[in-house]
Amino acid sequence: MLDDYKKAVILDYHKKKDQRALSSNLVYPTCKKLKEECLAALRSRTLKKDEKIIRDFFNNGEESNDYSHSINRFDRDRFKPLDNFISGETNVRDERNIEILAWLIGFERRPYDYRVDYTTTPGEVNEEIKEITAESEPEESEPEKAKHEEIEKKEFVRLKQPGKRVPLTKYGIDIVIFLITIVGGIGLSMRNASIERSTTAYICTSKVAKKYHLNARCHGLNNCKSEIISTTIASAKDGGKTLCEIEH
Q1: pLDDT by residue (tens digit) across 12-64?
Q2: Alpha-carbon distance 193 to 208, whole Å?
Q3: Would you list the domain boundaries of the chain?
């Protein structure tokens, strides 16, 4: 959810601030310093995935060959909501401020993706998979343990010999990869379904409308001649609607 993304971004900001990994413009922000930091980030640490963030914030969604020009003519007082967000204000009405901060601090999982669970870190997910995999391994009887210990001893001796490869045993890497793939796939599917049931979507009530939108300000809603209502992604999909191409 967007609220989880917002919390993850501000948490990453404070973590990097404590580690002294941020510039003084971000440690002691003002509207002027935030504008200067945007120009510095544009020159030195902008990725392909950041183009939409910059375009939406500084250029109202219009493409440009020189976004530095857009930033330079951007009224610095308009950085006030971003400054307030950094200072601890949680009621951020325009999510573009969250995306700009994610870009400036180098938040890895940017921009926002409703399919991502921002309540956990990638490391935590990997640990969960390891624990489930370990629990899935069956216990051996004493004779079986002794047999496998003897095999391992022989393979250790063979490992010392040049040109020898240790073959996969019962608990070889193929089985581990298989278990991780199965567990990860089930977990991802369940998490995506939960996110779709709780994430807000916007749809046009016109009978000819075929798309749902994640942003109430999406340009795809401009042509709606009927009422625009909020629902969930799951409900929109049940109604036969697909995600707007602009927001892919």
Answers
A1: 999 999 999 999 999 999 999 999 999 999 998 889 999 999 999 998 888 88
A2: 26
A3: 2-105, 122-195, 199-247
